[in-house]
Amino acid sequence: MDINAQKILQNTFGFSEFRGHQEDIINGAIAGNDALVLMPTGGGKSLCYQIPMLVREGVGVVISPLIALMEDQVNALTQLGIKARYLNSMLSNEEARQTEREVLDGTLKVLYIAPERLLQPRTISLLQQATISLFAIDEAHCVSQWGHDFRADYLHLNILQEQFPHVPRLALTATADTQTRQEILMRLGLQNSRVFVSGFDRPNIQYRITHRENGNQQLLRFLQNEHPNDAGIVYCLSRKKVESTAEWLQAKGFNAVPYHAGLPMETRKRHQSRFLREDGVIVVATIAFGMGIDKPDVRFVAHLDLPKSVESYYQETGRAGRDGEPSTAWMVYGLQDVIKLKNMRADSQASEEFKRIEHQRLESMLGLCEITSCRREALLHYFDDDEVKVHCGNCDNCISPAERWDATDATRKALSCIYRTGQRFGVSHLVDVLRGQDNAKVKQHGHQSVSTFGIGNDLSADQWKSVYRQLIARGHVQVDSEAFGAFKLTDKCRALLRGEETISLRKDRVELRSKKASRTSTHVSDQDKELWEALRAKRTLLAKEQGVPPYIIFGDVSLMEMMERRPATAKQLLMVTGVGQSKLEKYGEVFLSVLAEFSDSASVTSSFDNELGADKVESYLESLALLKAGMDVPMIAKQRGVKEKTIYVHLEKCIQEGELEVLDVVQLPEEDIDRIRDALFANSDEENRIKLTPVFEDLGGAFTYEVLSCVRAELLREL
Ligand SMILES: [Zn+2]
Q: I need a labelling partner for 180 at 20 to 30 A (CA). Which of 192, 225, 372, 616 fits?
């Protein structure tokens, strides 16, 4: 590893170790190599170019389409003591000239720039006079014409290769399926560079998809039960629905604001800024909102309408939980979404090829909604991520397995009803005929005399709709947009109608209410609440003074770690994730004094002398996630490349926090646990401290120290 890179990671950014591919990517870039980096949101993508920019000589240029966010990105780097600027249309001429001078005099390390600005001859000539350390092309999927983030300017970025052949280029994106990946490599002239694909899994996001009954009420219940004060994004398909939903949430007491491309620029800016700078704001938005949003503590993403593809779904839900804390991706969808999207596709003026690909993408999305197996597995499989587990333990289908029913008979009835009525009607009429509703429309068409009239009284109207929805999703039924959404049979139906095939469908169910409901992102115990609020208040105050978002001062992860580990000295504070030299100098004293105010309360001890040592809170949560995903301790240790002992320390902490029971971790009969508990109890002093060596000896060495510590953690929690 480049020694400078390691030092910068610790001293400037306040992280103790690189994650995943970061180290390889950074080493490659420092050595001057091009690369394409696919890394999930929250995976530490920006470090991959920021560190090489600091190590290499000259100024690093970050190309990003997200003008509105550049100021915050520059602020965040400035907080870390890094000299950064941006060049875009929001600067006055005077400011732009100043920045240009800094590019030339070599004092600048990082320059953010919009692609349209970069492509101006004036900018190209400016950069040619300067020493450039690295080009980072962020949001690289914008070159893809298939994606909804397509930016024409990105197509011209191959100019970098022609004009700056000796400057390494890193293209980065948080998502790209195989096809988009090829497009990026080709259009940016990166065919010969390395491709780094990090696992796409976001274990802290809980995926839940449920059928729609009354979308707004379901959303309200979800928010009230699980995210009453949290920041989040609600996605809707239309501008009208965005506005009505935002108003409705406001009326219900939520701090919600609308965001879509039809709102005046000023309003959009104000709403985005509130989302970034205030706590607990909900943005209700079309897909126009969110790309590149750096806010780490978005606790939920809710979809009231079906996204157009799995890729969009992954990208949009990926905006939740960038800080690695538990977050929810929640969605309702129904028959109407399926019909609407199929119609939109058929109506579009696009080429047949384009429609075909869009069609496949929609099919995959519907597939994801209807599966009864693990959602995460399906999602990762879509991105060819091979690290697939068959049971993630953190999606609705894993937490509470969906039931299936043999729908062969019902399906035949549903399909023949389409056939008998001439393939000219939509769902409500078909259901009326099946259920024998003798209404005007039925009479008008003489459908009370078709053979399928009234043969479906065994199922409710909702159940029939569910059958049709799933048949459309599976491609047995096609929606004809030219015939007002009439249902038509496809070739796929034949075997079913001839009785050569059986079919089982998903049973729609009442929505899962997460068992972890009360455990929102910030699982703060009652006794810590005051300190937590005090730390947050201090952060908000500092952020307001400087006009920056609170997370730029310190993220929730840092505050949480301060609360849990109670650093008392500058040196200890430096060991907290996200605290580097610059932030220590700026805020160290202020936060240490807040911590000191709370340090005299009775039960509090600093964790800096316990075994968890310099390890990170993030790290133990990861071990917890893996355990919950069904792995045992040796497997987790192998997966994470650390000693089993370390994993036990993590899990011990989870037991201590009440996140786990001892039996989740240790596979022992209960009699053994009782024996250990007795021995521990016998060796505790008046202040409930228990040394393990005498316990180990009392038990004749029958149990390892790791096992003993886990049981001790649970005992101490109860005492
Ligand atoms: Zn799962």
A: 372
Ligand 1 center to 328 CA (angstroms): 13
Taking the centre of ligand 1 as the mean of its atom positions, its distance from the CA of residue 651, in whole angstroms, is 21
Query: CB of 135 within 8 A of CB of 167?
Result: yes
User: Which CATH number does the domain housing residue 557 bear?
Assistant: 1.10.150.80
298 and 381 inside one domain: yes
CA of 235 to the centre of ligand 1 (A): 23
Judge whether 514 lies within some domain.
no
Distance 326 CA to ligand 1 centre (A): 15
Residue that terminates a domain, selected from 442, 475, 506: 506
- Non-local (6+) Cβ contacts of 254 within 8 A are 223, 282
Domain at 490, CATH number: 1.10.10.10
How far apart are the CA of 332 and the centre of ligand 1, in A?
Answer: 17
Q: Are residues 468 and 560 in the same domain?
A: no
From ligand 1's centre to the CA of 197, what distance in Å?
A: 22
Q: What are phi and psi of 580, to 5 degrees?
A: -110, -175
Give 65 Cα–ligand 1 centroid separation in angstroms.
Answer: 34
Kindly give the residue spans of alpha helices, DSSP state H, lying in 598-643: 617-628, 633-640
* Entry pTM: 0.65
Q: How far is the CA of 206 from the centre of ligand 1 (A)?
A: 8
Span from the CA of 514 to the centroid of ligand 1 (angstroms) = 13
For residue 397, the CA-to-ligand 1 centroid distance in Å is: 6
Both 48 and 159 in a single domain? yes
Provide the domain limits for residue 531: 524-604
Phi-psi region of 306 (alpha: psi -120 to 50; beta: other; left: phi over 0): beta
* Residues 581 and 617 grouped into a single domain: no
What's the CA-to-centroid distance between 378 and ligand 1, angstroms?
9
CA of 216 to the centre of ligand 1 (A): 26
Statement to judge: residues 597 and 619 lie in one domain: no
The Å distance, Cα 203 to ligand 1 centre, comes to: 10
What is the Cα–Cα distance from 709 to 702, expressed in whole angstroms?
A: 14
Distance between Cα 207 and ligand 1 center (Å): 8
- Co-location of 88 and 182 in the same domain: yes
Dist. CA 6–CA 16, nearest whole Å: 9
Strand partners, 132: 59
Mark whether 599 and 680 lie in a shared domain: no
Residue from 677, 678, 675, 680 nearest 693 by CA: 680
Could you state, in chain order, the average pLDDT of each consecutive group of 10 residues for the chain (719 residues)?
84 87 93 92 86 96 88 91 93 93 93 94 95 95 80 90 94 83 91 86 92 90 91 94 96 95 91 89 88 82 91 90 90 84 68 75 85 87 69 86 88 94 92 93 93 92 89 83 80 88 83 48 68 89 87 87 87 87 91 86 54 53 80 81 79 84 85 88 78 82 86 83
C-alpha of residue 293 to centroid of ligand 1, in Å: 26
